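Problem: given the chain below (322 residues), write out its structure.
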Amino acid sequence: MNGIHLTDMRQVAELVCVDRISPAGKYFLSFPNKHVKAYLIIIKIGCFALVNPFSPLEAQFQTIRELGFDYADLTDSHDGALLGNEFGFTAAASLDAHPSRVRKMVARHQLSLTAVCAHANLLDPSAPDTYGTAQIIKAIRLARDLGVKQVITTEGDPKTTFGEKLTYEERIFTITEKLYWPVQWAEELGIELLIEPHGIVTDDVAATAELLERIGHPDTVGLNLDTGNLWLGGGDNLEYIERFAERIKHVHWKDLEADWESKRGKQYGCGMGLVPVGDGVIGLPEIAAELKRRGFDGPTTLEIFGVDAVKTSAERLQEWFA
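Solution.
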């Protein structure tokens, strides 16, 4: 088959007939009067559910829809109850709530969720107030109940002297150990567990390769490329794609300005970018081109703050992947 990157079905509406749509988002097409079949790779661009500060989750979904997006992720989650949810100033979903609460919100705003985020602290000792193994497992179950195929996690920054003093080998071991049961749950429930660059291990290409080797289960464990986090932590996006192209199942888009360069290699990850993709120093057009060249067709999410920056970013990505 031939792969054609498009962002709008109207570009080919008069030329082809859509046979069916695969779960991966590929449109299988029949060309009239020709014995040729092809598929369109239409990039899915979604938005993270933290676009409105101090607003509840439903308000985030409403804004995402008003901005013209069809896709979003479940960005923030927690155990049990949260005061901010009760009084409407936190955009988090409880991992212990009935899944229909999120499902109905998403349906009301005609969105599709592409991932449940379960960013964790996997380098510090386990504790009741530390987001770790138990919460990732709950996120995997929630994803299953919501019909979402991907859960994204990472090791994060240690907050204790114990975590800070771990050796390289100890870091690999503790991440692998804390992800053992989440991987088993993900495999059992048919969920892709994606590891994101957002820490001293996952921002390093060689360390990520060793971590993936130790964890195993390549059909279940993949990667979420976060362009801003990887660059900020000292990694190279093009090298990452070259090494792990087949394992990248999701992309978080963000660009960073030149004043972040002094923090590169010292800070491992940031929540969002403040400029449209392409306006920063990371080299997003080249990164997008390489992903396109390699046939990437997974979902993607904008982690950009500001309505204008979000809209501009979506337009540019559509152009780059067209």
